[in-house]
Amino acid sequence: KQIEDLSVQLQTDPNEKLIEKYSSLQEDYKYKGGYSYQGEMMSVLNGFGFKKEDLDRNVSSFSGGEKTKIAFASLLLSKPDLLLLDEPTNHLDLSTIEWLESYLAKYKKAMVIVSHDRTFLDRVANIVYELEYGSIKRYAGNYTAFTEQKKNDLVRQEAAYRRQQKDIKRLEELIEKFRYKKNKAAFAQSKIKYLERMDRIEDPKKADNKAFKAKFVCGVKGGKNVLSLDHFEVGYDRPLAKLSLEILRGDRICVMGDNGTGKSTLLKTIIGEIQPLSGYMMLGHQIEIAYFDQNLAAFHSGNTVLEELWNEYPELDMYQVRSVLGAFLFSADEVFKEVNVLSGGEKVRLSLAKLMLKKANFLILDEPTNHLDIVSKEALENALKEYDGTILFVSHDRYFIKKIASACLVIDDDKVTYYPDGYKDYIDVKVKQENDKSEKENKKAEKSLKEIKQKPKYNIKRLENEISLLEDLLEDKRALRYEPEYYQDMRKMAQLDDEIDDLHNQIHALEEKWEE
């Protein structure tokens, strides 16, 4: 308001004191984020999937998940000195996670994050603390750096452990040899005290990284052609996706896309839970499907863990059922726990045990890594890599996708695109499209600036025209902050802010010439 009032005064009385005050206020306004706060607000809200028209809606009209996102957006925009994030990527779709990564990577204050999203940690974290057996250890770098350092540490620890165990055995033999000899008893006692004071090195094999052991096998090999889809349209009251696809034995296809695009609907239509809207589907010869539902972590049952598995596979004996449950980390009395009291991760493990026993040759998995910790995710990855059947799965876990997928099927705005060479193929195409678009925009901007920067002989009229032209361009640039193309892309928004700053500087320099 002060800047606006001064601007009016300067039109009639452009004295030095007012110009100085005007310049000072502009600097202050810029420093406090006056030129960027609305654009940043729209960028954050849009990053969480909100549109401009949502700004006028009452918070009570949003769903529970949307209210959580609003609270998250508010937290980020408040820019606290210390941001504490507990599993921030849970229930976010891939594009939102990627937006959040780019936002947090530029966050200038401190963050502490708990996460099982390994790609997210790679792109955001620069220090990793691992909690294991009640102690904490610091590793410099991101998640990948942590895994490398830990692997090297374990090799060194194992070597040191073996040396120490050899030394302990030697000392124990000496003690046993001399402890009952009168003239050597003092020597034996000194060695006993030395052993008692010794800092024992932990056996690295006892590390807190116990994982379940799954082995997925096909009961029947099945035909080479697993599934044929032709103009297959899925949806409810309206079509969500339409595709034609041939899935062959051994394919591992990941279905990707934002929430609500029809990924889970596609899987449920293939297994027959939902009727297709149109098109054709045919399963191959002797193809047996096993389906994992992402909502399994919330299922309820009054059965014990043992009963839940045994009821589904009554032909197994007690030893076989206990062995399978043991492989999925349900040992001793844990098999008598009621299913209702299990954690999300435990329910997923129980569901995976059932899935394994089915011995199907076509696994259809909807978000199988949800609720699993990193060790369990790695165990599932290893089991699926050794599986000799076919997999069609939905996942937002990019680390998991890179490890498992041989091809990607991306659903985006009713358009379905197939990437036959997997996740890297998808990323390469996406980066190329963004670079081409950015290059085109940069050339257009350079051309506009070149036209403005033509330097005529300076006179009052020309200076005023040039200032006016630059001010018009400045307004156009400011207006871009409210365009989805910019507030959806942190990189473009930062570039736009730099261009606005540059225009401010040019206008300021020309105004000084005008004053002269």
Number of strands: 13
- Round the Cα radius of gyration to an integer and report it: 32 Å
Largest sheet: 6 strands, mixed
Distance between the ends = 28 Å
Regions with pLDDT < 50 over 5+ consecutive residues?
none
User: SS-based structural class?
Assistant: alpha/beta
- With helices defined by DSSP (H or I, 4 residues minimum), what is the helix count? 18
Indicate the overall shape.
Answer: globular
Task: Estimate percent helicity.
Answer: 40-55%
Strand content: 15-25%
Strand order of the largest sheet: 9-10-11-7-12-13
Show the helix and strand layout.
Layout: H1 2-12, H2 16-31, H3 37-47, H4 64-77, E1 82-86, H5 94-105, E2 110-114, H6 118-124, E3 127-132, E4 135-140, H7 143-178, H8 185-197, E5 225-235, E6 239-248, E7 252-256, H9 263-270, E8 278-283, E9 289-292, H10 305-312, H11 318-327, H12 344-358, E10 362-366, H13 374-386, E11 390-394, H14 398-404, E12 407-412, E13 415-419, H15 423-452, H16 460-480, H17 484-487, H18 490-515
Parallel strand pairs: 1-2, 7-11, 7-12, 9-10, 10-11
Antiparallel strand pairs: 3-4, 5-6, 5-8, 12-13
Helix pairs in contact: 1-2, 3-4, 7-8, 10-11, 16-18
Model description:
- This protein is of the alpha/beta class.
- Helices cover 51% and strands 15% of the residues.
- It is built from 18 helices and 13 strands.
- The chain has helices spanning 2-12, 16-31, 37-47, 64-77, 94-105, 118-124, 143-178, 185-197, 263-270, 305-312, 318-327, 344-358, 374-386, 398-404, 423-452, 460-480, 484-487, 490-515, and strands at 82-86, 110-114, 127-132, 135-140, 225-235, 239-248, 252-256, 278-283, 289-292, 362-366, 390-394, 407-412, 415-419.
- A six-stranded mixed beta sheet has the order 9-10-11-7-12-13, sandwiched between helices.
- Helix 1 (2-12) packs antiparallel against helix 2 and helix 10 packs across helix 11.
